[in-house]
Amino acid sequence: MSVSEAGRLLATPAAYTDDRRLHEALALLRRQSPVHWVDVPGYTPFWAITRHADVLAIERDHALWLSAPRPVLRAAALDAELETRRARSAGLRTLVHMDDPEHHALRAVGADWFRPKAMRALQARAGELARRHVDRMAAYDGRCDFVRQVAAHYPLYVILSLLGLPESDFPRMLRLTQELFGQDDAETGRGGTPQDHTSVLEDFLAYFRDLTAERRARPTGDLASQIANARLDGAPLDDNVAASYYVLIATAGHDTTSSTIAGGLEALIRHPDQLRRLRADPGLLPSAAEEMIRWVSPVKEFMRTASADTHVGGTPIRKGESVLLSYPSANRDEQVFADPFRFDVARDPNRHLAFGSGVHYCLGAALARMEIRALFAELLPRLAEVELDGEPAWTATTFVGGLKRLPIRYTLT
Questions:
Q1: Key word Transcription present in the record (predicted)?
Q2: How far apart are CA 328 and CA 400, in angstroms?
Q3: Is the pLDDT of residue 185 over 70?
Q4: How far is 7 from 22, CA to CA, in rounded Å?
Q5: Beta-carbon count within 10 A of 103 CB
């Protein structure tokens, strides 16, 4: 594989379905071209940033490196369609799309719901839902698709419980999330056109606009009510901004965690020594959860745009040019992680960047950690045996994703 071929994989959704080949490409870029210009048909060109130190430096300098106008990698046609919708105040506009001071003010709206005190209050609910989903595994008679029957549902139930949505709406939220993040996958996407993608966004936004109106009329003390009735500079949130806030929490709040839980179990199956180690010492669960997050890196990239002429790793980057921050690459950087391709449930230190850094550090990081620990704390003591029952399959994506199928055979006690 040439360096140019390696760079082009970052703009190829199918590349993320082949973990081995992807990491070969990323390792090659780190060695030979860590700040690499990528110019492929259908995409606006960008610089690929693959080393941990460079990704971290860019994330921490939010004045120089802006989220707007290009927060994630998308095909140029889709970017144009979304920009047209945003100009009409009809498109998705979340914390991911914003820079300070607007970002700081809006982040504060929901921040208290993700602080340690709130997580302690939610811990009992997370544990109850973990038990419910492991009990369901027992009912599947020793075989299941762990993604579709467990991992995709458990964190969804947690985050939507936090929002205060009725369980009858959970299947709808799951389908819309899979269509949104799996837009480039033939199995999960609604279709391959920009209009197909925006139709998913519109379905999401319409649902949450209705929720905003309902919670403003009848607040219920949940996170949805907090968002609906928040005020910035004395005025209520714009309906579209409020709906976008819900979309971010409902989607990123469960899809990334479900990918980590599924990828974490697959890693334990493929590394049985680490599974035995973790079962023998449950005190390793916090470090094991961090290793799962590093290993999976469910958020594949965010983009930043230079607000002034600058340099990254000695490479000049002009004002207005964009960089792609590759988290799977940063989280396997040989300069930061000892033996980075070894799955180690006791890894310490573990300075992964899966939650980002700086002002855009993941709002739900504490919740994700709690959910991962709660599910495995319930599953591992009951998991007498587990093995693959077919080939796993990954979602084709350049943004958020992981396993879409994990067939397993197991014995629960």
A1: no
A2: 11
A3: no
A4: 10
A5: 19
- Give the pLDDT confidence score for residue 250 in this predicted structure: 80
Say whether pTM exceeds 0.90.
Answer: yes
Query: Around Cβ 272, how many Cβ atoms within 10 Å?
Result: 11
Average pLDDT over residues 243-262: 86
Instruction: Give the whole-number percent of the chain exceeding pLDDT 90.
Output: 64
12 pLDDT exceeds 60? yes
In whole angstroms, give the CA distance from residue 236 to residue 233: 8
| Mean pLDDT lowest among 16-30, 67-81, 251-265 | 67-81
Q: CA torsion 88→363→7→190, rounded to 10°?
A: -50
* High-pLDDT (> 70) share of the chain, %: 96
Record: fold of 3-412:
Cytochrome p450 (1.10.630)
Between CA 348 and CA 256 the distance in angstroms is: 23
Amino acid at 1: M
State the Cα–Cα distance between residues 371 and 122, nearest whole angstrom: 10
Determine the angle formed by the axes of helices 194-217 and 170-181, rounding to 10 degrees. Answer: 140
Q: 70 with 44: CB under 8 angstroms?
A: yes
SS3 274: helix
User: So what's the pLDDT on residue 85?
Assistant: 64
Structure tokens at 26: 């990323």
pLDDT band at 355 (very low <50, low <70, confident <90, very high): very high
For residue 304, which of 27, 104, 98 has the smallest C-alpha distance?
98
Give residue 114's identity as a one-letter amino acid code.
F
Residue spans of alpha helices (H) in 218-333:
223-228, 239-270, 272-280, 285-296, 327-330
What distances in angstroms separate CA 302 from CA 342, 346, 382, 388, one per listed residue? 25, 28, 38, 32
Phi, psi angle pair for 12, to nearest 5°: -125, 100
Tokens of 287: 């470090």
Instruction: Compute φ and ψ for 311, nearest 5 degrees.
Output: -135, 150
CA angle 9, 13, 16 (to 5 degrees): 75
- Output the pLDDT for position 331: 98
| Cβ neighbours of 117 (radius 10 Å) | 9
Give the integer Cα–Cα distance in Å for 46 and 348: 34
Q: In Å, how far from its chain's centre is CA 43?
A: 22
Q: What is the mean pLDDT of residues 378-398?
A: 95
Helix (H, G, I), strand (E, B) or coil at 193: coil
On the 0-12 / 13-18 / 19+ scale of CB atoms within 10 A, 60 is middle
Q: Is residue 411 helix, strand or coil?
A: strand
24: confidence class by pLDDT, cuts 50, 70, 90: very high
